[in-house]
Amino acid sequence: MPNASSWSASSPLLLLWEDSSGTRIFLSLLYAVLAISGTLSNVMVIYLVFSFKKLQTTSNAFIVNGCAADLSVCALWMPQEAVLGLLPPNSSSLRSAEYRLLRGGLLGLGLTVSLASHLLVAFNRYVLITKLPSVYQALYQRRHTGCMIGLSWALALLLVPLLPGLWTPGSAQQPPPRQTDGSSRYTALLLALAVLGQTALLLHCYLGIVRRVRGSA
Fold first, then answer.
1. DSSP letter, residue 85
2. pLDDT confidence of residue 163
3. Nearest to 34 by CA among 19, 17, 47, 16
4. Distance from CA of residue 203 to its chain's centroid?
5. How many other β-carbons are positioned within 10 Å of the β-carbon of residue 13?
6. CA 4 to each of CA 19, 75, 81, 94, 96: distance values in angstroms, whole numbers, following the listed order
7. Which subcellular locations apply to this protein (predicted)?
8. Which residues of the chain are under the pLDDT cut of 50?
9. Is residue 53 part of a domain?
10. What is the three-class DSSP state of 180?
11. In this structure, is residue 13 part of a structural domain?
12. Residue 123 lies in a domain
């Protein structure tokens, strides 16, 4: 049966798996504070958009979509991390592959949809400012907006299974170092490419907006 250090090495999602009990308690409290503040803030944004008709715009629809994705992390994943940091490292309930898959899925799904929502907001502003009003109205009809939001979740559901390093199931024996390193590098590469790709598209949209504003001025 693996000890705490070997289980931590084979499970990158267990962020609170530290040898020091003081570190685990501190991180648990940090996750708890982030979970409460993140949940309240995202719920407040969703409530405001649904309560005031003037706020029910296309851009805010993408923002609400991002808030819903953040809730899967703040309201569902972070509280579990806060509790796990207080449990003993050798707790048998934490070694369930299905439970780890659930936690990994919540984290991956929330982060992916949140990144996609930020990109959709930036592209929406880009089209609104740099294109003709007729182009914006044709592109951002209610049906098209719903399809974009649905596509962000569908894309996340397709990409989450490609991150095996997030929830590689533990076994009775410690996995070979090369296999663990390869899985971790594969996961890190996918995450890096996703973040860099999103950053490049965001920069393109906002630089286009800046050029258009300067030209108008």
1. T
2. 61
3. 16
4. 20
5. 20
6. 8, 27, 16, 12, 15
7. Membrane
8. 1-17, 167-179
9. yes
10. helix
11. no
12. yes
